[in-house]
Design brief:
By secondary structure, the chain is an alpha+beta fold. It is built from five helices and six strands.
């Protein structure tokens, strides 16, 4: 509820920094992700992608076992900026939206 709306709201500013695509990835099925995209009104601002089996999340060390809370395997909350050379800037999990810190990083990187 906190992370996605921030990126939707700031997508124009993020894209002005040269970002081609903003993706929200979740360990969920594509039908849930499509419904969430519709509910949030993400349109072409943020692409919601399903990581159904957690394959990507596991490969980047972000798969979390939430079975003790009856939630199964989930992805931690994080943000990544990946440039054309596959250089990665990683933003660790937090309680608020990552949109602000990511935008600040992108704006400072352009200077």
């Amino acid at each position: 509820e906190k992370h996605l709306p921030g990126f939707i709201a700031q997508s124009d500013e993020v894209k002005k920094t040269g970002i081609d695509l903003i993706v929200c990835l979740s360990v969920n099925d594509p039908f849930v992700m499509a419904a969430w995209a519709d509910q949030q009104g993400s349109g072409d601002k943020v692409k919601l992608v399903a990581d159904g089996n957690g394959t990507f999340s596991k490969s980047v060390g972000q798969l979390a076992d939430k079975t003790a809370h009856n939630m199964g395997m989930r992805s931690e909350r994080y943000a990544m900026v990946i440039d054309a050379n596959l250089k990665v800037e990683y933003f660790a999990k937090g309680d608020g939206s990552f949109a602000g810190p990511v935008l600040e990083f992108l704006q400072s990187s352009k200077k």
